[in-house]
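I am still getting used to backbone structure tokens and would like to learn alongside you. To get us started, please write out a protein record for me. Once you have written the record down, we can walk along the chain together.
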Amino acid sequence: MKLNVLSNSEIKRCCKNEGLVITIGPYVFRIRSSMQDIHRNLGKLYGQFELAKEDEIVDFNIQIDMPYGFRRFYKPQVDFKLEGYAPFLPLPATQAFPILEWGMNWCIAQHTFDYLSIHAATIEKNGFTAVLPAESGSGKSTLTAIMVSNGWRLLSDEMTLISLRTGAVSPISRPISLKNRSIEVVKAYNSEAIFSNVVSDTNKGTIGHMKSPDSSIESINKTAGISAFIFPKYEARADCNLSPKVKGEALLSAIEQSFNYDILGKIGFKTLTKVIEQANCYDFKYSSTQDAVDTFEALAQSL
């Protein structure tokens, strides 16, 4: 895919008028907003994504704006709307970009039926593709950002989409969501990383989003077969340990992290069972980023 280079003025014009219509993997988003914060951060993190063709069907029509009335002036708030419907309560206007990112996650999680969707990052190097399912607070996104900073391809951070037909992962390669101390850890590790504005005092703490590498955006239409399911867990001062995980346990752990397994039913079970049978499964405990890098590099070189 050839990268776009959208100017901030073009993004602003689109968002305020017909909407910025971009293709993100298998989905087309139309984003409308009059907010400068949205325009700036879209320019930083999405300015190189592919513009949708005029005849493409838009999957998600999103509006991010402050509500009318006194809330535009007193303790300003912002609404996320999909097709005019607001699924969330308004948030402080300073959280405009985080609510856009959370809302995009919600759109995919609530309306995806062609894929098994799992709360997992997916990264790839040298043909080795690792799916990293994990609960919030496990260090998944920090690990993903560190590996991406070491030349790994980013297929996803928050949500992995597994094809019900082929079992391959369809990339979405959206920005990596980092929280609290992880933001400074990643910035110190990769001084060239591009970040959104960092927002504090959200219900998840301090939030910042790291731009997907150009190479990952360029290859967003290239699916990947799954080599391994790795269940990461950061523990302070813990020794680095990659240990084989019983596949039955891996299946149950992946089901716990799935957004739509219950809805898909039998086909979801068949899909997940097949990809786990064909992949290696591990638990991974770490505290040192360098140990984590060394472990994953060894896996990528083992093919």
